[in-house]
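Q: Got a minute? One more chain.
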Amino acid sequence: MKRILLAATVLVAATACAPLVTQSPGQGLSPVNAIAAGADEHLILAGHDVVSYFTDGRPQAGDPAIKSVYRDVTFRFASAEHKRLFDAAPDRYVPQFGGYCANGIVYGIPWGGDADTWAILHGKLYIFGGAGSRDAFMLDPEGNLRLARRYWDDEVNGSNALVQRAYRLAWRVPHYKSGAELAEAVARARAAKR
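A: Always. Here it is, folded:
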C-alpha cells in the first residue's frame, strides 16, 4: 500500500510542476521553502526579511523593491541596510534547511515553515512549522540539530521536496514521532518544570 501511495504521489507531483520548480532552484539552495511571486520565481519565506530576525529580533515583511538574488533564490528586505548586510555575508542570514520546518527535517521531511515561528541557535536561523514543532524541537535542540543535519546532508539537500516528503511519509525514519506524540512529550516536559 505504501508503494502505491508513493507512486500516486510521484504521479501527482509530476503533474504539479510549478511547486516542484519553485522549490527546487538548484545553485546550492535546493530545496527551499519558496513561492513564485510576480517576477520572483523562487521567493524564500514568502518574502520575509531574513536579516530582521537577527537585527530586530522578529520577522518583518520584505519590500518587493528591495531584494537580492542569491544562488537563484530571491530574498526581500525591509530596508536597504538589511540588504547591504545580507549582500556582505549571505550565508550568515540564509535560513537553515532551506527555510523548511527544522523539526520536519529531523524526520527527513521538508515540509512547512512558518516565517513567524523561528529560533536562532548557534548564530543560525531555523524556521518551524508552528509553535508545537518548535517546542518539540527545543526539547533536545542539540540532538535534533544532529538528526536534522544528518537527514539534510544525506537525503534532503539537492532533492525534490515533494518527492522526498512523499518518500519519508511512506517510509518513516526509525525515531519518527507523530504530532500527537510530540505534543504529549512537550506537555510532559512543561508539567515536569512546574
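A: DSSP finds ten helices and six strands in the chain.
Q: Perfect, thanks.
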